[in-house]
Description:
Oligomer: heterodimer
Shape of chain A: globular
Distance between the termini of chain A: 43 Å
Shape of chain B: globular
Largest sheet of chain B: 2 strands, antiparallel
Structural class of chain A: alpha/beta
Number of strands of chain B: 4
Strand content of chain A: 5-15%
Largest interface: A-B, 102 and 109 residues
Amino acid sequence: MFPCGQTRREAIWEMGGGFAGLALLSLLEADRFFPSQARGAPPLSPGPKRHFPSKVKSVIFLMMNGAPSQVDTFDPKPLLQKYAGQPLPADMKYINSGGRKVGFLTPSFRPFRPGGKSGLPISDYFPRVRQHADKLAVLRSCHTDSHAHGSALVAMNTGSVFVGKPSLGAWCVYGLGTENNNLPGYVVLMDKRGGPISGQPNYGSGYLSAQFQGTLFRPGLEPIPDLAGPSGVSRGELRKQLDLLGQLNQEHMQSRPGGSELASRAASYELAFRMQAKAPEAVDLSQETTRTKEMYGLEKQPTDEFGRNCLIARRLVERGVRFIQLYSGGGHLEDTWDAHTSIEKNHGLHALEVDQPIAALLTDLDQRGLLDQTLVIWGGEFGRMPFSEGKGEPGRNHNPYGFSMWLAGGGVKGGQAYGATDELGFQAVEKKVHLHDLHATFLHAMGLDHERLTYFHGGRDDRLTDVYGRVVKDIFS
Amino acid sequence: MWAGALLLLLTAGQTDFEKSVAPLLVRQCLGCHGGSDPKGDFDLTSADKAGEALQGGLQGKLWEKVSSGEMPPKEKGQSRNLNEKEMEIMRGWLARGAPWPKGQTLDPLEKTTENKAGRDWWAFQPLGKMAPPLPGLHPVDSFLQKKTAEKNLPLAPRASKEQLARRLFHDLIGLPPPQEILEDYLADTSRPAWEKLVDRLLHDPRHGERWARHWLDLVRYADTNGYERDADKPFAWKYRDYVIQSLNAGKPYDQFIVEQLAGDELPDARDETLAATGMLRAGAWDDEPNDKLEYKYDRLEDLVHVTATAFLGLTIKCARCHDHKFDPVTQVDYYKFGSAFWAGDLMGNAGIKPGEKELLVWKDLNSKPEPLRALKKGDPRKPLKEVAPGFLSVFKQLDGPFPPSTSALTTGRRLQLAGRIVHPGNPLTPRAAVNRVWQKIFGQGLVRTPDNFGFKGDLPSHPELLDWLARAFQQNGGSMKSLIRLLVTSEAYARASTFPGEKEWEKFDPDNRLLWKMNRKRRDAESLRDSLLAVSGDLNSRMGGPGYLPNLSADALEGLSRKGGAWKESPPLEQNRRTIYMHLKRSLIPPMLTTFDFCDTTLPCAQRDQTLVAPQALTLLNNEFMHKRSQGLARRVKEKAGEGLEAQVRGAWIFILGRPPAAAEELAAQKFLKGKETPGALAALCHVLLNTNEFYFID
């Protein structure tokens, strides 16, 4: 039995790739009935199957939902000062997302300053992250395929503007398996204000098996849905129930010798029991020192929530969770980074919420020797326009043509900016990095070749990067 | 003598071309250098088109590219260079001046190669006419037992009557048998007891509810648009009800197809057939596409994909950008097929205006749409030549131009397309249909890739049986119920899913492709939820109408971008209706469904995942819904059995598993209950039983 429309030979092809797979395939081809040699290999057993060596074990994706403005954060454009108040040159074509008011070129709302030994410029929205400048590789020439949140978020997460493709996290777990059998391999921590537009497909597994989909964790004592019973059944009582269940299942299996799925299901109850014990521990921050909690900005506003999530992310990395995505911003408009009415108000708040926690996370990972094995990704679904929307202390409209993301840890060479937007920060012009290139680069950091991480679907070997993607090798040391 | 030698040489050359050169070119080169948009503008299908490249022998361009290893290029990092033998053929041919039989054009799609299916691929051939090979047996058994006998496989014994009843209830209506019916059946020793039960369930309206869900998976049905606003599709549920009613009414399959594709173009169009076209509107739809021009073609792809997958069991959407890599479907075929939908409102999804019928319908905007052109690499800004509406060229006899419309309002193209899909000369449609039914009845298809009968799909385990069934299905006027009846009255259906010593035989056919035993099934999300409601006595069996919104935990609502007001759960009684009536919001499919491998609602799904993961166990152990069922059950058991411990244990077993407990089980249960004289103790026992493998799996 293989997932949605997949044959055994397709599954084996994807599973093995390479020559072992080929040899097996030819065996199967010889007798289209698939003899017993083909059996025994589970469709996708957990465990690293890297295409080339990499130290990276985990990814933390800091998703700035709503899209931060590049010219106000990581992509300084001094010329905006000079041209302030003028319209965007007429030859710079764009889609006016949502048909909003078009204002005039507007310089960064806060000054940029050099950070670290490298002097990488970062604006005053991120003073603490700036202290880690030498760890960051800022990709300033990113561009994507959609100007609307719904499809752009899905694109940033799955490579396609259409819902239904597996998400980046699902691909990572599909490719590398999990290192902790007591926890899900792919965990998503939402912002309390709401989920991302387009919902579950943002962290879904698409046509990959459902076991690779993201599991929503939330801070608190019940990080996983249904982890604890509603009526407060004690652990001792639950154990008794599971013992009886085990006994009944055992009786049932005795007269059914050929049923491995019966044993698997019985075992899944034991894993559930262990998860009940282990998952709360993974998010139990009472085990952290006061100093650590202070560093992440816990117990104070507005950093408490994102700080908690960052700290949980570090604990999950320590416990071998493969892919962790943290959302900053949730729901719509000003509850996210979607600064239509005021960059200063919007980014002023959201940056303040995340600056200290992110800086703490980088420090903490570094101190614990985890930074090399953790790829940290920061960015939103697109960028924002260099011109204003509205008057007074204005906001900026959506811009898929140019925006910045940064990477840290995971073999990335810090203190550098890669690629460039034009002098106004409107669109990527130099060493352009398309969404597919980003994904190819993320996978590369994990030791995965985006062209070989495939799954047969819809009549072809489909992949995260469709038929595109270029690894930005220059950013790795 | 000279003349004779020359003739010999000439024919040798020709044979050489036919036998080795042409197959080599088709296999290794024409995949790119042929078809409607040859790579590098180099077309190798005829000597004329290839032109200069063939000249110059071993100093020529073709040999330069091949001998240097530049061609054929690498694919996914793997070399595809010619092997020594092929290299020799190529060298010899070019050295002789590349002789090419005059006027001959290579048809890259004619024959199946190692890489690609041709028009001679099995699925496109007319239905075979083989009669059941072993006399005196049910036709299904006749075909199956021929193969098991050839392989010397044993046949599993008949399953017990209880097992059979549970199996049939699960497969036909998706619910466990109520105790009275089970007892009646067990007591009925008359010969046609089984047939009576089969007919009873086929006529039960809950049969349509069960099987409609299979169909809804296939047509990517949901009640909202998805994407940012994820707005409701007004009256989408009328399409869902149309499917249920059609299946219950035993509507002929051809009619079922025609109504969904062209219910508005039928001479006797009425509300029912109009509602059927809701299928074309059921997909995900972005009201704020980034690139409107491109999105129009994306919408077209959705319609082509769902139509080809659901009705033909063929993937043709990859021919949007180029000829199909694995199947004999050209890019022109894709646009011919797609023309049927080109006149429709691909971009709009306007709500229902006042005075209009309260139905979600598809219709053409006019009878003379702008011409549809194929697109170079699928790019809407690079249109190629105009494509006339038509069918797939692989079916030569069905591949004529569509007659012009006689109506001022509609193109009639969808009716034409539907006519070709259901045409008796098109073997794919009945093959795909019977294979799907077989899959649901026997647990896996005769072709295990029910949505792909092409090159990358599975080969049929029993091609003659598949064809015999397809033919019988056609002859029965496409009656689904007759087909189901035929399958479940076979001996194969009644076999046990397990028997002592089976492990010995498993190694000969580990996947049970020859059906020497029954495949064990597991409850899908709907059957599980519905059965839990049924055994606890809570199932509200009201049929049809708008869907209900289930209660969702705060966790699940975390995932919703518009919190608050967006989710107003229905009254509890409503929520106890069958799962098929649950309102499906694309951005918020309830975890109770997704955890149990509910299908993706954006793409046609002919086969759901089957996972066994810990979050499922957590849900069944801890979810509030489960605790309500256990408590309901405990009440039911007490009502019937009174306060006696023994009677309660017995009652719990009968209600949940449909049988009394065995001695060891009874003992274990009593031990579990003892010393726990709390009101919750019996509910806890019921809770455990609901979690058992016996409840979850269907023998």
